[in-house]
Amino acid sequence: MEAQRLEILFIRHVEQGLNEEEHQELLALLEADNLDVLDEPLKRLWNEALGLRGTDDKAEQRIKLVMDKVNRPLRTGLLRRLWWIPAAVVFLAVFAVLYRPLSKPLPVAEKARVFSTISTGPGLKKIVRLPDGTAVFLNSASSITYADDYNGSQRKVSLKGEAFFQVVKDPAKPFVVEFNGLYTRVLGTSFNVNAYPENKADEVTVSTGKVEVGKMKYITLKDSMLAVLDPGRQFSYSDGKVSLSAVDITGIGDWKQGVIRFKGENFAEVALRLEKWYNVKIRFDHQGLKNCRFRGTFKNLSLQKVLSLLQKSSDFTFQINQQQVFIKGKGCL
Predict the structure, then answer these.
(1) For residue range 26-53, what is the model confidence (pLDDT) as tens digits?
(2) Dihedral sign, CA of 37, 38, 40, 43?
């Protein structure tokens, strides 16, 4: 039984390699007195080697190490005959190439990467601390994903939705955020990324430090970024077009403090933000209502209060029924 297992492991070792457990088992079986079973596999190798030429100066030393390891008696077996014939150096070279030295552990199959995803539901926010100490403030209906080898050779996360990042500085490992085919790369800074799927444009806004933004497929190419942002600058990307603008630094990421700000968005865009913020569904009685535009800043207010204040600048009424909001009115042109 041991002899049969030895032959199986030996052949597998040659053809495809062994994992660490099988490698240790093979070494243990090589200590036993059943090594004659390897004569046939060795003879097959010798026949394959007959047509080869060339030598390897280190091959003989390597194979001798193997022979010392297995401690095989050199009486009348096949291996003894091969060892002493002049052409054995060919055999040794081939053996050294095809049969990895059994005195060294074989490489273990690469471990599959494991990914962690942290999400927030509508109406919820969360602070996430990454393994390197970087803080991520997740807005409502958002998520980040990172691999288990984060902070190994690189620091990279994928974002869906909106998040504010306070990145721990590490010059050797730039911090990369991937979102909607774009990336943001920094060393150590704080910035906001707004990349909800339904947005008309993806936005990156810098609070401190400097941020590089570009297309993810070109991230490895030098000088291929779309923009480099300093504090108080905002990058916007829509339909392949880039626009840059100045913003008030004090307002960047102020949603973390319960602030919701409208800067001229139409009612349809406002409704999408309110749905995430308060975990509701908003229905319009008249499509023209979606054309109404609003400006204003609201901090830690209920949905009832926010709608009441918006109501002062437009002709509509509303009704809140649990998680449903119904908006009625003539609308705007």
Answers:
(1) 777 666 555 566 666 666 655 554 444 3
(2) negative
Burial readout 74-111 (b: 16 or more C-beta within 10 A, e: otherwise): eeebebeebbeeeebbbbbbbbbeebbebeeebeeeee
Domains, the chain, ranges and CATH?
Answer: 2-98 (no CATH), 115-251 (2.60.120.1440), 258-328 (3.55.50.30)
- The Cα 299–Cα 306 span in angstroms is 9
Amino acid at 3: A
> Which of these, 304, 296, 302, 329, lies nearest to 314 by C-alpha position?
329
The separation between CA 46 and the C-alpha centre of its own chain, rounded to angstroms, equals: 47
pTM of structure = 0.65
Q: Answer whether 164's CB lies under 8 Å from 191's CB.
A: yes
Q: Give pLDDT tens digits for 165-190.
A: 999 999 999 999 999 999 999 989 99
The single residue listed with the structure tokens 């030098």 is 222
Residues 255, 238: Cα–Cα separation, whole Å: 23
